[in-house]
Automatic annotation (TrEMBL):
Gene3D superfamilies the UniProt entry points to: Aldolase class I (3.20.20.70), Quinolinate phosphoribosyl transferase, N-terminal domain (3.90.1170.20)
GO BP annotations listed: NAD+ biosynthetic process; quinolinate catabolic process
Ranges for domain Quinolinate phosphoribosyl transferase C-terminal: 115-281
Pathway: Cofactor biosynthesis; NAD(+) biosynthesis; nicotinate D-ribonucleotide from quinolinate: step 1/1
Single GO molecular function: nicotinate-nucleotide diphosphorylase (carboxylating) activity
Organism for this UniProt entry: Aquabacter spiritensis
Task of the protein: Involved in the catabolism of quinolinic acid (QA).
The protein's name in its UniProt record: Probable nicotinate-nucleotide pyrophosphorylase [carboxylating]
Alphabetical list of Pfam families matching this protein: QRPTase_C, QRPTase_N
């Protein structure tokens, strides 16, 4: 599937806010003190380690907001695998705006590339042992959800729901408060429109049987080991999408995928993935 960039209308407010936060009340006093106003420079954004790229367009937007006259030449694309030493973006023009935008541009590119890189590792492990896709969750950085979920797609993963309003996910506390699985599912089905999917979280096979009796679109199989997951997939028998969640790592993904689930969701991709180290190198 072709990765479509996020519209500038969605990303510019976030990038602009980050630049304003960094510039503070007086602007970049270091650069203005040290660098002559007419100085020009050329730099390259370079990968310091191997990984998967994401957020290159966001980084370019940071530079362009500081100075629309800068020359921005992408040397790679989001979703590309990069090696240590690969240049991914060349920037040229007035030195002051380049230096002032540097940190914000790198913050976005490093963070989003880290998410894409972690996703790519899990996605490769899942593909090698089954048909499951790796999916993210709502455990995202406040204000950055659209960007971080985009980075998951850049790494070859899939997006779970974007918020509380685009799908029903009935979890254990919903079931307890509603008075049981059947009551919760019936209430949800009566409330939402015909295009809204209903997913139910279960952590036992008994709960799963109840879900299959009443009927749901998807089941979230929470913290089940590979053997129980195989039983769950057999019990569902294609009547609902099966999603495994809990204790997902590069080491556990092969066993989870081999159980035959459709999706493997992982919260740490967007809340704890390490960055991909990128830097800006002076080109002379």
């Amino acid at each position: 599937m072709t990765l479509s960039p996020l519209p500038a209308l969605m990303t510019e407010p976030v990038v602009r806010a980050a630049l304003l936060e960094d510039l503070g009340r007086a602007g970049d006093i270091t650069t203005e003190a040290v660098i002559p106003a007419d100085a020009v420079m050329e730099v390259a954004m370079v990968a310091r380690q191997p990984g998967t790229l994401a957020g290159l367009g966001i980084a370019m937007q940071a530079f362009a907001l500081m100075d629309p006259g800068l020359s921005l030449e992408p040397l790679a694309a989001d979703g590309d695998a990069v090696r240590a030493g690969d240049a991914v973006l060349r920037i040229g023009g007035r030195a002051r705006p380049i230096l002032s935008a540097e940190r914000v541009a790198l913050n976005f590119a490093c963070r989003l590339s880290g998410i894409a890189s972690a996703t790519a590792i899990l996605a490769a492990a899942a593909r090698a042992h089954g048909h499951a896709r790796i999916a993210c969750t709502r455990k995202t950085t406040p204000g950055l959800r659209a960007l971080e979920k985009y980075a998951v797609r850049a790494g070859g993963g899939a997006n779970h729901r974007f918020g509380l309003d685009d799908a029903v996910l009935i979890k254990d506390n919903h079931v307890a408060a509603a008075g049981g699985v059947a009551a919760a599912v019936r209430a949800a089905r009566a409330y939402v429109g015909h295009l809204v999917k209903i997913e139910l979280e279960v952590d036992t096979l008994a709960q799963l049987r109840a879900a299959m009796e009443i009927g749901v679109d998807a089941v979230l199989l929470d913290n089940m080991g590979p053997d129980m997951l195989r039983e769950a997939v057999a019990l569902v028998a294609g009547r609902a999408v099966t999603e495994a969640s809990g204790r997902v790592t590069a080491e556990t993904v092969p066993g989870i995928a081999a159980a035959g689930v459709d999706l493997i969701s992982c919260g740490w991709l967007t809340h704890s993935a390490p960055i991909l180290d990128l830097g800006l190198d002076f080109q002379g």
